[in-house]
Amino acid sequence: MKYVLLLAFVASILTGCGASTKITKSWKDPDSSIKTDTQDKTLIIAMVKDAVTRRMIEDNLVKRLGARAIPSYTIFTDDMLKNLSTEAFQDKVKKDAYKYVLLMRLADIEKETSYVPGTTTGYYGGYGRYYGYGMGMYSTPGYYTTDKNYFVETTVFSVDPDKMLWTGTTKTVNPSSVDKTVTKIADAVAYKMKEDKFLVK
Question: What is the full DSSP assignment across 157-174?
Fold first, then answer.
């Protein structure tokens, strides 16, 4: 079975404005944690088709996870990952003595349409101290807006035993650039790992 790259998180599809990123859910194995100063090696893999984006994601995560986090692009070329079998991948990870593997992938893309209601503003005033009043009504029509939501899943496994230790999903609304989005996702993931007491000093 081929090791397939699932994430199409490339610049050509990242359009829009007002991007925001937040963790929507996370889970931690109750008995597991990783120290930031550990000597145990963690292999970081961004499962993306675009080579530049892969490097950006992995470098951003390495910065936040400590000195023993290794970006996969320094070991596996893009062609190698595309054609590497599951068995060959696992053999390489064990041979190089990695204790953890972190995988990041695009889990889903959703379009969300919402209605923004119109507004009506009344202005009341008068002429002179005792005379009448005037009123003007100002209205703006309602409208529909469509947001594009990107859900990115980050999961950490131990190598031996092969076990899930932590997983979290981020939601990014209307991402406008790969660079900014990658940084926000890495920040959100690292923050949540610390909050969950999975990544500890």
Answer: EETTTTEEEEEEEEEEES
